[in-house]
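Technical note accompanying the year-one report. For the benefit of new consortium partners, we illustrate the data format agreed upon in the data management plan: each record pairs a sequence with a C-alpha coordinate string. No post-processing was applied to the example shown here.
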Amino acid sequence: MKSIEFSDWELDEFVSSAISKLGWKSPTEIQIDAIPAGIKGRDIIGQARTGSGKTAAFGIPIIQSCKASSGLQSVILCPTRELAIQVSEEMGNLQGKKGIEICVVYGGTDIEKQAKKLDKGVDIIVGTPGRVIDMTKRGHIDLGIVSIFCLDEADRMMDMGFLPDIIWVMEQMKERKQTLLFSATFPQEILDISEDFTNNAVFIMSEDMEIEVPEIDQYAIRVGRINKMWALGRIISSMDNKDQMLIFANTKRMVDMLSERLIREGVEVQALHGDLTQNKREKIIKKYKDGDVQILVATDVAARGLDIDGVTKVVNYDLPDDYENYVHRIGRTGRMGRHGVAWSFVSKNEKEKLNRIASTWNLRIPYSNAPEIVKGKKEMIRKRDDWDEEANGFGMVKFEIAITNSEISKYSLFEWILNICKIPEMSIGDILIGEKSTVIEIHVKKAGYVLDILKNRKLKGKNLNPFVIS
Protein backbone atom coordinates (compact mmCIF):
# COMPACT_ATOMS: atom_id res chain seq x y z
CA MET A 1 0.00 0.00 0.00
CA LYS A 2 1.41 3.39 -1.07
CA SER A 3 2.20 5.69 1.84
CA ILE A 4 0.49 9.08 1.84
CA GLU A 5 2.59 12.15 1.13
CA PHE A 6 1.78 15.86 1.39
CA SER A 7 2.10 16.10 -2.38
CA ASP A 8 -0.93 13.79 -2.73
CA TRP A 9 -3.20 16.55 -1.47
CA GLU A 10 -4.21 19.60 -3.48
CA LEU A 11 -2.64 22.12 -1.18
CA ASP A 12 -2.23 25.83 -1.78
CA GLU A 13 1.00 26.42 -3.78
CA PHE A 14 2.41 28.58 -0.96
CA VAL A 15 1.69 25.87 1.61
CA SER A 16 3.13 23.14 -0.62
CA SER A 17 6.28 25.16 -1.16
CA ALA A 18 6.62 25.85 2.58
CA ILE A 19 6.19 22.16 3.46
CA SER A 20 8.79 21.21 0.88
CA LYS A 21 11.17 23.81 2.30
CA LEU A 22 10.66 22.33 5.77
CA GLY A 23 11.71 18.97 4.37
CA TRP A 24 8.42 17.26 5.23
CA LYS A 25 7.30 14.43 2.95
CA SER A 26 4.95 12.13 4.82
CA PRO A 27 2.28 13.40 7.23
CA THR A 28 1.89 12.00 10.74
CA GLU A 29 -1.08 9.88 11.83
CA ILE A 30 -3.15 12.78 13.11
CA GLN A 31 -2.34 14.85 10.01
CA ILE A 32 -3.44 12.07 7.60
CA ASP A 33 -7.00 12.18 8.94
CA ALA A 34 -7.28 15.79 10.10
CA ILE A 35 -5.89 17.77 7.16
CA PRO A 36 -8.27 16.49 4.41
CA ALA A 37 -11.30 16.80 6.73
CA GLY A 38 -10.20 20.26 7.84
CA ILE A 39 -9.70 21.48 4.28
CA LYS A 40 -13.26 20.36 3.48
CA GLY A 41 -14.49 22.59 6.29
CA ARG A 42 -15.52 19.80 8.64
CA ASP A 43 -15.58 20.34 12.41
CA ILE A 44 -12.92 18.19 14.06
CA ILE A 45 -12.37 16.74 17.53
CA GLY A 46 -8.81 15.45 17.38
CA GLN A 47 -6.99 13.49 20.05
CA ALA A 48 -3.20 13.37 19.76
CA ARG A 49 -0.28 13.64 22.15
CA THR A 50 2.16 16.55 22.26
CA GLY A 51 4.81 16.18 19.55
CA SER A 52 2.51 14.27 17.15
CA GLY A 53 2.30 17.08 14.61
CA LYS A 54 -1.09 18.40 15.66
CA THR A 55 -0.17 22.05 15.03
CA ALA A 56 0.17 21.30 11.32
CA ALA A 57 -2.96 19.11 11.54
CA PHE A 58 -5.08 22.18 12.28
CA GLY A 59 -2.67 24.81 10.95
CA ILE A 60 -2.57 23.66 7.33
CA PRO A 61 -6.39 23.63 6.90
CA ILE A 62 -6.65 27.06 8.55
CA ILE A 63 -3.94 28.58 6.32
CA GLN A 64 -5.47 26.87 3.28
CA SER A 65 -8.85 28.50 4.04
CA CYS A 66 -7.63 32.00 4.94
CA LYS A 67 -6.79 34.78 2.49
CA ALA A 68 -4.25 37.52 3.00
CA SER A 69 -5.56 40.95 4.03
CA SER A 70 -9.17 39.81 4.24
CA GLY A 71 -9.71 40.71 7.87
CA LEU A 72 -9.85 38.45 10.89
CA GLN A 73 -10.81 34.95 9.77
CA SER A 74 -9.48 32.57 12.44
CA VAL A 75 -8.70 32.49 16.16
CA ILE A 76 -6.56 29.80 17.78
CA LEU A 77 -6.63 29.62 21.59
CA CYS A 78 -3.69 28.13 23.51
CA PRO A 79 -3.29 27.64 27.29
CA THR A 80 0.06 29.45 27.65
CA ARG A 81 1.96 32.27 25.99
CA GLU A 82 4.85 29.90 25.23
CA LEU A 83 2.58 27.57 23.30
CA ALA A 84 0.88 30.50 21.57
CA ILE A 85 4.26 31.77 20.36
CA GLN A 86 5.26 28.28 19.27
CA VAL A 87 2.01 27.76 17.31
CA SER A 88 2.30 31.23 15.75
CA GLU A 89 5.84 30.55 14.60
CA GLU A 90 4.89 27.20 13.07
CA MET A 91 1.88 28.76 11.34
CA GLY A 92 4.23 31.38 9.92
CA ASN A 93 6.53 28.66 8.59
CA LEU A 94 3.60 26.72 7.09
CA GLN A 95 2.15 29.63 5.15
CA GLY A 96 5.42 30.37 3.34
CA LYS A 97 4.99 33.48 1.20
CA LYS A 98 1.18 33.53 1.24
CA GLY A 99 1.24 36.84 3.11
CA ILE A 100 -1.29 36.03 5.83
CA GLU A 101 -0.93 38.35 8.81
CA ILE A 102 -0.66 36.26 11.98
CA CYS A 103 -0.77 38.04 15.35
CA VAL A 104 0.13 36.38 18.63
CA VAL A 105 -1.81 37.80 21.59
CA TYR A 106 -0.93 37.00 25.22
CA GLY A 107 -0.67 38.60 28.63
CA GLY A 108 2.41 39.77 30.47
CA THR A 109 3.60 42.06 27.70
CA ASP A 110 2.90 45.56 26.31
CA ILE A 111 -0.83 45.68 25.60
CA GLU A 112 -0.54 48.86 23.51
CA LYS A 113 1.87 47.27 21.02
CA GLN A 114 -0.46 44.32 20.57
CA ALA A 115 -3.45 46.66 20.21
CA LYS A 116 -1.72 48.67 17.46
CA LYS A 117 -0.94 45.52 15.49
CA LEU A 118 -4.52 44.30 15.83
CA ASP A 119 -5.91 47.66 14.76
CA LYS A 120 -3.84 47.55 11.56
CA GLY A 121 -5.66 44.38 10.61
CA VAL A 122 -4.74 40.72 10.98
CA ASP A 123 -5.99 37.50 9.37
CA ILE A 124 -5.26 34.97 12.12
CA ILE A 125 -4.95 35.45 15.89
CA VAL A 126 -3.11 32.95 18.07
CA GLY A 127 -3.59 33.82 21.72
CA THR A 128 -4.30 32.98 25.33
CA PRO A 129 -7.91 33.24 26.59
CA GLY A 130 -7.45 36.10 29.05
CA ARG A 131 -5.75 38.51 26.65
CA VAL A 132 -8.06 37.61 23.74
CA ILE A 133 -11.08 38.43 25.93
CA ASP A 134 -9.43 41.65 27.14
CA MET A 135 -8.67 42.79 23.60
CA THR A 136 -12.21 41.90 22.51
CA LYS A 137 -13.77 43.96 25.30
CA ARG A 138 -11.45 46.87 24.45
CA GLY A 139 -12.68 46.75 20.84
CA HIS A 140 -9.42 45.61 19.20
CA ILE A 141 -10.75 42.16 18.27
CA ASP A 142 -14.12 41.47 16.61
CA LEU A 143 -14.90 37.85 17.36
CA GLY A 144 -18.23 38.23 15.57
CA ILE A 145 -16.56 37.96 12.14
CA VAL A 146 -14.41 34.91 12.86
CA SER A 147 -15.21 31.90 10.67
CA ILE A 148 -12.70 29.31 11.99
CA PHE A 149 -12.05 28.65 15.66
CA CYS A 150 -9.40 26.27 17.00
CA LEU A 151 -8.83 25.20 20.61
CA ASP A 152 -5.38 23.70 21.18
CA GLU A 153 -4.51 21.54 24.23
CA ALA A 154 -8.07 21.59 25.50
CA ASP A 155 -7.29 19.36 28.50
CA ARG A 156 -4.63 21.75 29.75
CA MET A 157 -7.14 24.58 29.37
CA MET A 158 -9.42 22.70 31.76
CA ASP A 159 -6.61 22.15 34.26
CA MET A 160 -5.89 25.88 34.26
CA GLY A 161 -9.54 26.86 34.80
CA PHE A 162 -10.17 28.40 31.38
CA LEU A 163 -13.52 26.70 30.65
CA PRO A 164 -15.67 29.82 31.32
CA ASP A 165 -13.33 31.91 29.14
CA ILE A 166 -13.49 29.38 26.30
CA ILE A 167 -17.29 29.34 26.39
CA TRP A 168 -17.39 33.15 26.39
CA VAL A 169 -15.11 33.37 23.36
CA MET A 170 -17.07 30.77 21.42
CA GLU A 171 -20.39 32.45 22.19
CA GLN A 172 -19.14 35.69 20.58
CA MET A 173 -18.39 33.93 17.28
CA LYS A 174 -21.80 34.28 15.64
CA GLU A 175 -20.38 33.69 12.14
CA ARG A 176 -18.26 30.67 13.05
CA LYS A 177 -18.42 28.03 10.32
CA GLN A 178 -15.74 25.61 11.51
CA THR A 179 -14.58 24.46 14.95
CA LEU A 180 -11.39 22.47 15.60
CA LEU A 181 -10.75 21.00 19.06
CA PHE A 182 -7.41 19.28 19.72
CA SER A 183 -6.24 17.65 22.93
CA ALA A 184 -4.17 14.78 24.33
CA THR A 185 -7.13 13.75 26.49
CA PHE A 186 -10.74 14.91 26.46
CA PRO A 187 -12.20 15.79 29.88
CA GLN A 188 -15.97 15.50 30.15
CA GLU A 189 -16.30 19.30 30.17
CA ILE A 190 -14.77 19.49 26.68
CA LEU A 191 -16.97 16.69 25.38
CA ASP A 192 -19.99 18.52 26.78
CA ILE A 193 -19.21 21.84 25.09
CA SER A 194 -18.24 20.07 21.86
CA GLU A 195 -21.85 18.89 21.54
CA ASP A 196 -23.07 22.48 21.77
CA PHE A 197 -20.40 24.15 19.63
CA THR A 198 -19.66 21.66 16.85
CA ASN A 199 -21.75 20.40 13.97
CA ASN A 200 -21.42 16.79 12.85
CA ALA A 201 -17.79 16.76 13.98
CA VAL A 202 -15.27 14.19 12.79
CA PHE A 203 -13.68 12.34 15.71
CA ILE A 204 -10.01 11.62 15.02
CA MET A 205 -7.75 9.71 17.38
CA SER A 206 -4.10 9.10 16.69
CA GLU A 207 -3.27 5.44 17.32
CA ASP A 208 0.14 6.51 18.58
CA MET A 209 -1.03 7.82 21.95
CA GLU A 210 1.87 6.16 23.77
CA ILE A 211 4.33 8.66 25.19
CA GLU A 212 7.91 7.83 24.32
CA VAL A 213 9.89 7.52 27.53
CA PRO A 214 13.51 8.58 27.07
CA GLU A 215 16.22 6.07 27.85
CA ILE A 216 18.07 7.91 30.59
CA ASP A 217 19.16 7.06 34.11
CA GLN A 218 16.44 7.82 36.65
CA TYR A 219 16.89 7.93 40.41
CA ALA A 220 14.82 8.91 43.44
CA ILE A 221 16.32 10.36 46.61
CA ARG A 222 14.31 9.86 49.79
CA VAL A 223 14.50 13.30 51.35
CA GLY A 224 12.20 15.60 53.30
CA ARG A 225 11.46 19.24 52.59
CA ILE A 226 14.17 20.71 54.84
CA ASN A 227 16.94 18.66 53.21
CA LYS A 228 15.99 19.06 49.56
CA MET A 229 18.49 21.90 49.24
CA TRP A 230 21.19 19.68 50.71
CA ALA A 231 20.48 16.96 48.12
CA LEU A 232 20.34 19.54 45.34
CA GLY A 233 23.69 20.95 46.46
CA ARG A 234 25.21 17.46 46.22
CA ILE A 235 23.93 17.04 42.64
CA ILE A 236 25.13 20.49 41.62
CA SER A 237 28.58 19.77 43.06
CA SER A 238 28.79 16.68 40.82
CA MET A 239 28.38 18.77 37.64
CA ASP A 240 31.27 19.61 35.34
CA ASN A 241 31.63 22.48 32.90
CA LYS A 242 29.93 20.59 30.08
CA ASP A 243 26.76 19.86 32.08
CA GLN A 244 23.51 21.82 31.99
CA MET A 245 20.81 21.32 34.59
CA LEU A 246 17.07 21.93 34.52
CA ILE A 247 15.36 22.03 37.93
CA PHE A 248 11.56 21.73 38.10
CA ALA A 249 9.38 23.14 40.88
CA ASN A 250 5.58 23.11 40.90
CA THR A 251 4.91 26.78 41.69
CA LYS A 252 6.25 30.17 40.65
CA ARG A 253 6.85 31.03 44.31
CA MET A 254 9.00 27.93 44.80
CA VAL A 255 10.96 28.69 41.62
CA ASP A 256 11.78 32.16 42.97
CA MET A 257 12.65 30.92 46.47
CA LEU A 258 14.83 28.14 45.11
CA SER A 259 16.75 30.35 42.70
CA GLU A 260 17.26 33.03 45.35
CA ARG A 261 18.61 30.47 47.83
CA LEU A 262 21.03 29.02 45.27
CA ILE A 263 22.25 32.50 44.35
CA ARG A 264 22.94 33.17 48.05
CA GLU A 265 25.03 29.99 48.06
CA GLY A 266 27.10 31.35 45.17
CA VAL A 267 25.44 29.30 42.41
CA GLU A 268 24.64 31.10 39.14
CA VAL A 269 21.08 30.24 38.14
CA GLN A 270 18.16 31.74 36.24
CA ALA A 271 14.45 31.40 37.07
CA LEU A 272 11.75 30.87 34.45
CA HIS A 273 8.03 31.15 35.16
CA GLY A 274 4.84 32.77 33.95
CA ASP A 275 5.13 36.03 35.90
CA LEU A 276 8.21 37.20 33.98
CA THR A 277 7.75 39.49 31.01
CA GLN A 278 7.97 37.77 27.64
CA ASN A 279 11.04 39.80 26.72
CA LYS A 280 12.86 38.67 29.86
CA ARG A 281 11.86 35.05 29.38
CA GLU A 282 13.08 35.03 25.80
CA LYS A 283 16.43 36.44 26.92
CA ILE A 284 16.77 33.78 29.63
CA ILE A 285 15.90 30.96 27.22
CA LYS A 286 18.38 32.28 24.65
CA LYS A 287 21.16 32.40 27.25
CA TYR A 288 20.33 28.86 28.32
CA LYS A 289 20.29 27.61 24.74
CA ASP A 290 23.60 29.34 24.05
CA GLY A 291 25.14 27.70 27.12
CA ASP A 292 25.69 31.00 28.94
CA VAL A 293 23.43 29.75 31.75
CA GLN A 294 24.28 26.37 33.27
CA ILE A 295 21.33 25.95 35.66
CA LEU A 296 17.69 26.88 35.01
CA VAL A 297 14.87 26.61 37.57
CA ALA A 298 11.43 26.47 35.97
CA THR A 299 7.77 25.55 36.28
CA ASP A 300 6.19 23.03 33.89
CA VAL A 301 4.17 25.72 32.13
CA ALA A 302 7.19 27.96 31.54
CA ALA A 303 9.34 25.06 30.29
CA ARG A 304 6.70 23.80 27.86
CA GLY A 305 8.15 23.87 24.37
CA LEU A 306 11.68 24.34 25.74
CA ASP A 307 13.82 22.35 23.31
CA ILE A 308 17.49 22.42 24.31
CA ASP A 309 19.96 19.70 23.39
CA GLY A 310 22.62 20.45 26.03
CA VAL A 311 20.64 19.45 29.15
CA THR A 312 22.40 16.56 30.93
CA LYS A 313 20.65 16.63 34.32
CA VAL A 314 17.02 17.11 35.30
CA VAL A 315 15.99 17.49 38.95
CA ASN A 316 12.39 17.12 40.07
CA TYR A 317 12.66 19.30 43.17
CA ASP A 318 8.90 18.78 43.44
CA LEU A 319 7.26 15.68 41.97
CA PRO A 320 4.72 16.78 39.34
CA ASP A 321 1.01 16.47 40.10
CA ASP A 322 0.34 15.55 36.46
CA TYR A 323 2.04 12.19 35.87
CA GLU A 324 2.51 12.91 32.14
CA ASN A 325 4.59 15.94 33.07
CA TYR A 326 7.16 13.59 34.64
CA VAL A 327 7.91 12.13 31.21
CA HIS A 328 7.98 15.59 29.60
CA ARG A 329 10.41 16.78 32.28
CA ILE A 330 12.91 13.95 32.05
CA GLY A 331 12.67 14.05 28.27
CA ARG A 332 14.53 17.36 28.36
CA THR A 333 17.78 15.49 28.95
CA GLY A 334 19.75 12.73 27.22
CA ARG A 335 19.43 14.25 23.76
CA MET A 336 21.80 14.20 20.82
CA GLY A 337 23.65 11.18 22.17
CA ARG A 338 24.47 12.83 25.50
CA HIS A 339 24.19 10.87 28.73
CA GLY A 340 21.25 12.09 30.78
CA VAL A 341 20.33 11.67 34.43
CA ALA A 342 17.05 12.55 36.16
CA TRP A 343 16.80 12.88 39.94
CA SER A 344 13.51 13.07 41.86
CA PHE A 345 13.21 14.19 45.47
CA VAL A 346 10.66 12.06 47.31
CA SER A 347 9.41 12.62 50.84
CA LYS A 348 7.84 9.83 52.89
CA ASN A 349 4.40 11.13 51.93
CA GLU A 350 5.23 11.05 48.21
CA LYS A 351 6.38 7.45 47.91
CA GLU A 352 2.98 6.39 46.60
CA LYS A 353 2.98 9.22 44.06
CA LEU A 354 6.35 8.04 42.71
CA ASN A 355 5.03 4.46 42.59
CA ARG A 356 2.04 5.60 40.53
CA ILE A 357 4.28 7.54 38.13
CA ALA A 358 6.53 4.51 37.70
CA SER A 359 3.64 2.09 37.15
CA THR A 360 1.82 4.44 34.75
CA TRP A 361 4.79 4.61 32.38
CA ASN A 362 6.35 1.24 33.25
CA LEU A 363 9.48 2.89 34.61
CA ARG A 364 12.18 1.68 36.93
CA ILE A 365 13.08 4.51 39.32
CA PRO A 366 15.34 3.07 42.03
CA TYR A 367 16.04 4.88 45.28
CA SER A 368 19.58 6.16 45.62
CA ASN A 369 21.69 8.16 48.02
CA ALA A 370 22.57 11.71 47.04
CA PRO A 371 25.87 11.86 45.12
CA GLU A 372 29.03 11.91 47.18
CA ILE A 373 30.92 15.18 47.47
CA VAL A 374 33.46 15.43 44.66
CA LYS A 375 37.02 15.34 45.96
CA GLY A 376 38.32 18.85 46.49
CA LYS A 377 34.83 20.39 46.81
CA LYS A 378 33.05 21.48 49.97
CA GLU A 379 29.53 20.61 51.09
CA MET A 380 27.35 23.40 49.70
CA ILE A 381 24.54 23.04 52.24
CA ARG A 382 24.72 21.12 55.54
CA LYS A 383 22.28 18.26 56.04
CA ARG A 384 19.91 18.79 58.96
CA ASP A 385 18.12 16.31 61.18
CA ASP A 386 14.63 15.90 59.80
CA TRP A 387 12.73 14.00 62.48
CA ASP A 388 9.33 14.63 60.91
CA GLU A 389 10.54 12.79 57.81
CA GLU A 390 11.83 9.87 59.91
CA ALA A 391 8.74 9.54 62.10
CA ASN A 392 6.07 6.95 61.41
CA GLY A 393 2.33 7.59 61.30
CA PHE A 394 2.18 7.68 65.11
CA GLY A 395 4.91 10.32 65.34
CA MET A 396 7.56 7.90 66.57
CA VAL A 397 11.17 7.65 65.38
CA LYS A 398 12.91 4.27 65.52
CA PHE A 399 16.50 3.95 66.77
CA GLU A 400 18.66 0.86 66.85
CA ILE A 401 21.13 0.54 69.71
CA ALA A 402 23.91 -1.96 70.46
CA ILE A 403 22.40 -3.70 73.51
CA THR A 404 20.92 -7.22 73.62
CA ASN A 405 18.38 -9.23 75.57
CA SER A 406 21.17 -11.04 77.39
CA GLU A 407 22.39 -7.75 78.86
CA ILE A 408 19.23 -5.95 79.99
CA SER A 409 15.46 -6.39 80.27
CA LYS A 410 12.89 -4.32 78.47
CA TYR A 411 11.64 -2.75 81.72
CA SER A 412 15.16 -1.91 82.94
CA LEU A 413 16.01 -0.27 79.61
CA PHE A 414 12.79 1.76 79.76
CA GLU A 415 13.60 2.99 83.29
CA TRP A 416 17.21 3.75 82.31
CA ILE A 417 16.15 5.93 79.35
CA LEU A 418 13.63 7.81 81.49
CA ASN A 419 16.26 8.43 84.17
CA ILE A 420 19.10 9.70 81.97
CA CYS A 421 16.94 11.62 79.46
CA LYS A 422 14.33 13.05 81.89
CA ILE A 423 11.52 12.74 79.34
CA PRO A 424 7.80 11.87 79.84
CA GLU A 425 6.91 8.19 79.72
CA MET A 426 4.65 8.85 76.70
CA SER A 427 7.73 9.89 74.71
CA ILE A 428 8.92 6.27 74.65
CA GLY A 429 7.10 3.84 72.40
CA ASP A 430 7.80 0.18 71.70
CA ILE A 431 11.06 -1.41 72.81
CA LEU A 432 12.05 -4.57 70.92
CA ILE A 433 15.07 -6.25 72.49
CA GLY A 434 16.75 -8.83 70.28
CA GLU A 435 19.68 -11.18 70.39
CA LYS A 436 21.93 -8.83 68.41
CA SER A 437 20.52 -5.34 68.99
CA THR A 438 17.54 -3.40 70.28
CA VAL A 439 15.03 -1.12 68.56
CA ILE A 440 13.42 1.68 70.56
CA GLU A 441 10.78 4.22 69.55
CA ILE A 442 11.07 7.86 70.66
CA HIS A 443 8.52 10.58 69.96
CA VAL A 444 9.51 12.95 67.15
CA LYS A 445 9.67 15.97 69.49
CA LYS A 446 12.27 14.30 71.71
CA ALA A 447 14.11 12.24 69.05
CA GLY A 448 17.07 14.55 68.48
CA TYR A 449 17.54 15.21 72.17
CA VAL A 450 17.47 11.50 73.07
CA LEU A 451 19.79 10.57 70.20
CA ASP A 452 22.43 13.07 71.39
CA ILE A 453 22.30 11.66 74.93
CA LEU A 454 22.52 8.02 73.80
CA LYS A 455 25.54 8.84 71.65
CA ASN A 456 27.44 10.02 74.72
CA ARG A 457 26.37 7.44 77.32
CA LYS A 458 27.40 3.88 78.01
CA LEU A 459 25.13 1.09 79.21
CA LYS A 460 26.61 -1.96 80.87
CA GLY A 461 30.01 -0.53 79.94
CA LYS A 462 29.11 -0.51 76.21
CA ASN A 463 28.82 2.28 73.66
CA LEU A 464 25.27 2.16 72.30
CA ASN A 465 26.11 3.49 68.79
CA PRO A 466 22.53 4.60 68.11
CA PHE A 467 21.33 5.19 64.54
CA VAL A 468 17.96 5.92 62.91
CA ILE A 469 16.03 3.16 61.16
CA SER A 470 13.99 4.56 58.26
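Partners are asked to follow this layout when depositing records. The chain has three domains: 6-205, 217-360, 387-469.
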